[in-house]
């Protein structure tokens, strides 16, 4: 894999859910070489954790070639899942240490596949603490909720 080390893609992601399960949204802010791109979407019946995962997935899907990435999330579920738990889940056929099926396995598998294409450092940031880019990702996730809520 040839990684472009000259620049790092900064990604900020967030998920939102009105009810859990309920109407959910995801959002991501991507920053690279002075450029920014914002994306968002949502689903009618979902969970907050699924939206947190989907935000990271949709952002990584936009990358056209292997990149160095700093991915910032306010979800410890996502950050710890991908950094600490996933290797054990894969070894144990997608089962937790309590022998239960991993929740959101479909999204974890997709995220795992996407991470193989890039050099990613995962960062947890405290949500709703005034971090400018995380707050923007939160706004985007809520736009996703609004978009889905307004669909007839």
Task: Describe this structure in a few short sentences.
This protein has helices at residues 48-61, 76-91, 105-115, 132-150; strands spanning 4-19, 22-32, 35-46, 67-73, 119-124.
| Rg over alpha carbons | 15 Å
Tally of alpha and pi helices: 4
- What is the assembly state of the chains in this entry? single chain
Which fold does the CATH topology refer to? Nucleotidyltransferase, domain 5
Helix content: 25-40%
Counted up, domains total 1
CATH class: Alpha Beta
What is the terminal separation in angstroms? 45 Å
CATH architect. name: 2-Layer Sandwich
Strand proportion: 25-35%
Unreliable segments of 5+ consecutive residues: none
Main beta sheet: 5 strands, mixed
* CATH superfamily (homologous) name: Ribonuclease H-like superfamily/Ribonuclease H
Order of strands in the sheet with the most strands?
3-2-1-4-5
Order of helices and strands: EEEHEHHEH
What's the shape? globular
Helix/strand/pairing category: alpha/beta
Any overview of this molecule?
This protein is α/β, with parallel strands linked by helices and 152 residues long. The protein has a single domain, classed as Nucleotidyltransferase, domain 5 (2-Layer Sandwich). Helices cover 39% and strands 34% of the residues. The chain is built from four helices and five strands. The protein has a five-stranded mixed sheet. A hairpin with a 2-residue loop joins strand 1 and strand 2. Helix 1 runs parallel beside helix 3. It is globular and about 40 Å long. The chain starts with a strand and ends with a helix.
């Amino acid at each position: 894999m040839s990684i472009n080390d000259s620049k790092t893609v900064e990604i900020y992601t967030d998920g939102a859910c009105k009810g859990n399960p309920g109407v959910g949204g995801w959002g991501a802010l991507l920053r690279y070489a002075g450029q920014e791109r914002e994306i968002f979407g949502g689903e009618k019946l979902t969970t907050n954790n699924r939206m947190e995962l989907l935000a990271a997935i949709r952002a990584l899907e936009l990358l056209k070639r292997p990149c160095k990435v700093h991915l910032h999330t306010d979800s410890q579920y996502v950050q710890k899942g991908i950094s600490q738990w996933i290797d054990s889940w894969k070894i144990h056929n997608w089962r937790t240490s309590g022998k239960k099926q991993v929740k959101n396995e479909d999204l974890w598998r997709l995220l795992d596949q996407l991470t193989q294409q890039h050099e990613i450092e995962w960062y947890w940031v405290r949500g709703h603490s005034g971090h400018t880019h995380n707050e923007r990702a939160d706004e985007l996730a809520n736009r996703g909720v609004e978009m889905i809520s307004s669909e007839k």
